[in-house]
From TrEMBL:
<dbReference type="InterPro" id="IPR014044">
    <property type="entry name" value="CAP_dom"/>
</dbReference>
<protein>
    <submittedName>
        <fullName>CAP domain-containing protein</fullName>
    </submittedName>
</protein>
<feature type="domain" description="SCP">
    <location>
        <begin position="68"/>
        <end position="179"/>
    </location>
</feature>
<dbReference type="InterPro" id="IPR035940">
    <property type="entry name" value="CAP_sf"/>
</dbReference>
<dbReference type="Pfam" id="PF00188">
    <property type="entry name" value="CAP"/>
</dbReference>
Length: 321
């Protein structure tokens, strides 16, 4: 079962391969509410964006903290250390989302012909998870994109959990967040970016994962972070002192079972694995048919070769409202 696509070669290539076209999105088609933009802008922005004038916004500190807190709460569920906020990248990320708003599109490689183009915004797009949302009833929360990136079921690249892998990278130390919201033609249009790729940190030597692996979902897991079409995923932190050494994990002969409390197994499909340098550079992903909230499942992944040594892993998860 070969991984889809070629391996990545460093930060620039991995941004090009993983992130291109990866911005997930969805629509809310409820009845419109036209009078919300000014209160929302006052709540979110110290200076509101205006894509028509190529003017990026400035987020309130509380909004950035909300996004950081959401990300760190998610990382804690997976036994990962918190990250800090990278204020130095604020202006870059707000340029990125303003460009997407101005062009009504997401792209990790925006062309110089784009309206409101800037190299800073383009650089931010190459280094970030991207997402878009639109609807007519109400605006989303300021951290709405975190859920989309985590379950990755709306990823525009099919069968890809790249956003999730960057969010749950054991070597990740800092992030920046940008969001641009506009009300246009009676519809809300929101574009978000989370900076997760730092080229100077791709050789980090201080990764950490409580369990020695990163799994989704794991433990007692909030149902709001799950999607019925989500892929389960698993990666091994084989070497916390060398990111690249974690490519020495081979799922080629591994098997997976997901069992109910009575020992019966769920059907497994879409099993794929790879060793690309997307955060933790080993990953196996699969569908488990019939996952239901409130049931404690055990995942068994056996026959994994970790630096040449066979290893078996098991963990439990239960989706909870």
């Amino acid at each position: 079962m070969d991984a889809a696509g070629p391996p990545c070669m460093g930060a620039a290539a991995l941004a090009a391969l993983l992130l291109a076209g990866c911005g997930g999105g969805w629509e809310d088609d409820s009845p419109p509410a036209q009078q919300e933009i000014e209160p929302l802008w006052a709540q979110w922005y110290a200076s509101p964006p205006d894509a028509a004038q190529c003017r990026p916004g400035v987020l309130h500190e509380a909004v950035k903290q909300q996004a950081l807190d959401k990300l760190n709460a998610i990382r804690a569920l997976h036994g990962l250390r918190p990250v800090v906020y990278d204020a130095d990248s604020d202006a870059q990320l707000m340029q990125t989302v303003m460009m997407m708003q101005a062009n009504q599109a997401t792209s990790h490689h925006p062309p110089s012909s784009w309206a409101c183009y800037s190299e800073a915004g383009a650089s931010g797009a190459r280094a970030s998870n991207l997402a878009s949302w639109q609807g007519v009833r109400s605006a989303p929360s300021a951290d709405w994109a975190m859920h989309s990136w985590l379950h990755d079921a709306t990823n525009l690249v099919p069968d890809n959990v790249g956003h999730r892998r960057w969010m749950l990278d054991p070597f990740l130390k800092k992030v920046a967040y940008g969001i641009d919201m506009a009300l246009r033609d009676g519809r809300w249009h929101s574009y978000a970016a989370l900076k997760v790729i730092y080229e100077d940190e791709q050789a980090r030597t201080d990764g950490w994962a409580r369990d020695g692996f990163v799994a989704y979902p794991v433990g007692d897991y909030p149902l709001r972070h799950w999607h019925e079409n989500a892929l389960l995923s698993f990666g091994v932190l084989a070497d916390a002192n060398d990111r690249g050494a974690n490519q020495a994990v081979d799922f080629g002969q591994a098997t997976v079972r997901v069992t109910r409390p009575d020992g019966s197994a769920l059907p497994i499909s879409e099993w794929r694995y790879d060793n690309r340098r997307y955060g933790l550079p080993n990953n196996v992903q699969f569908k488990a048919e019939g996952v239901t909230h409130g049931v404690a499942y055990t995942v068994h992944i056996d026959g994994v070769l970790v630096q040449g040594v066979p290893r078996n892993y098991s963990y439990r998860f239960r989706l909870q409202p």
